[in-house]
Write a structure and sequence with these properties.
Pfam families: DUF1775, PCuAC
Keywords: Signal
Number of strands: 24
Shape: globular
Organism: Agrobacterium cavarae
Number of domains: 2
InterPro entries: LpqE-like, Lxx211020-like, PCuAC_sf, UCP037139, YcnI-copper_dom, YcnI-like_sf
Radius of gyration: 21 Å
Protein name: DUF1775 domain-containing protein
Length: 333
């Protein structure tokens, strides 16, 4: 097995007082279609016994959940443990024999008074409708407390009869013949898109190549990109972003530092130097949309308002492209 560690500064958190000290971990969406790519959004509703804050969440991925990619979280280090699968799977026409088998979010601080969601994208492969995928979960808390959710119900057994049931995702039959290469197709929260809009001018600024991508069921955040050209003789600054389709929107940056990929919110915005072009693109500068009212669907447009120091407010639309245009093209050939 190999281990990959990333110190991360992505943002996705929610707060809600827990009403039951015995509530167990569960998934936001408890079902998934056969051979679909999903975002498994794990809810951790409370800390360990005694009200201890959660500082680490470990998730063992079940056989049949392949090519997993966890979502980074603000203030948590991310550890990905890789290993061999028990059998070989097909993914986009290629044999897949190994990949992530356990995900760990470490070094965080989730007080007992709040809950949070930990998200893993992956593909359901080789699991028949009617079966379940159990994800064994362990919480590590301050003062060395632990809470384990790792009991798997036997065939026909009611999981509620277990003291510490592992959260599960139940597999359902495909709908409308959709499978790989359709709506459930994805390769990352910041995957590239091909959709683009015309040029929007605001003062000395020219905005082009605006885009976003379709979101998967259960995916809590969306991304957005645009190219900004400053044709003037003085600098401007992108101060903020907003959209009526999201509870809030932020400007973020992904960058490598000492061989570690870090993501951080840019509270001071982005400077657009005079006579230069700034690109917001996958793997670099980008928008993040939180508390999305309805998942972005391919073919739709996301209205966005950008606020600049000098150019003021500028309204643009982000055309929603496929979840992964490169793979979608491949699957239609």
């Amino acid at each position: 097995m190999t281990t990959i560690k990333h110190a991360t500064f992505a943002a996705f958190a929610a707060a809600l007082s827990t009403t039951s000290a015995f509530a167990h971990t569960s998934f936001v969406n408890g079902t998934a279609e056969e051979d679909s790519t999903i975002v498994a959004a794990l809810q951790v509703p409370h800390g360990c016994e005694g009200g201890l804050a959660t500082t680490e969440v470990q998730v063992v991925l079940p056989e049949g959940f392949i090519s997993a990619k966890p979502q980074p979280k603000a203030g948590w280090e991310l550890e990905i443990i890789k290993g061999d699968y028990q059998k070989t799977y097909k993914n986009h026409g290629k044999d897949v024999k190994s990949g992530p088998v356990e995900i760990r979010w470490k070094g965080g601080n989730l007080p007992d008074d709040y809950y949070d969601t930990f998200n893993i994208q992956g593909k359901v492969a080789g699991v028949a409708a009617g079966k379940t995928l159990p994800f064994k979960v362990k919480q590590l808390c301050s003062d060395k407390g632990t809470a384990s959710w790792d009991q798997i119900a036997a065939e026909g057994q009611d999981p509620h009869s277990l003291d510490n049931p592992a959260p599960v995702i139940r597999i359902t039959a495909k709908q409308n013949g959709e499978g790989e290469g359709h709506a459930h197709h994805d390769h990352g929260a910041m995957a590239d898109t091909t959709a683009s809009a015309g040029v929007v001018k605001a003062g000395d600024l020219e905005l082009s190549q605006a885009s976003t991508k379709a979101m998967l069921p259960g995916q809590p955040v969306g991304g957005g990109f645009v190219t900004i050209r400053n044709t003037g003789t003085s600098d401007d600054r992108l101060v903020s972003v907003s959209s009526p389709l999201a509870g809030r929107a932020e400007i973020h940056e992904m960058a490598m530092a000492n061989d570690v990929m870090k993501m951080r919110k840019l509270n001071d915005g982005i400077v657009v130097p005079a006579g230069q072009t700034v690109e917001l693109s996958p793997g670099g500068l980008h928008f993040m949309f939180f508390n999305v009212k309805k998942p972005f669907a391919e073919g739709d447009k996301v209205p966005v308002t950008l606020t600049f120091e000098k150019a003021g407010k500028v309204s643009i639309e982000l055309p929603v492209g496929p979840a992964n245009p490169g793979e979608a093209k491949h699957n239609h050939n």
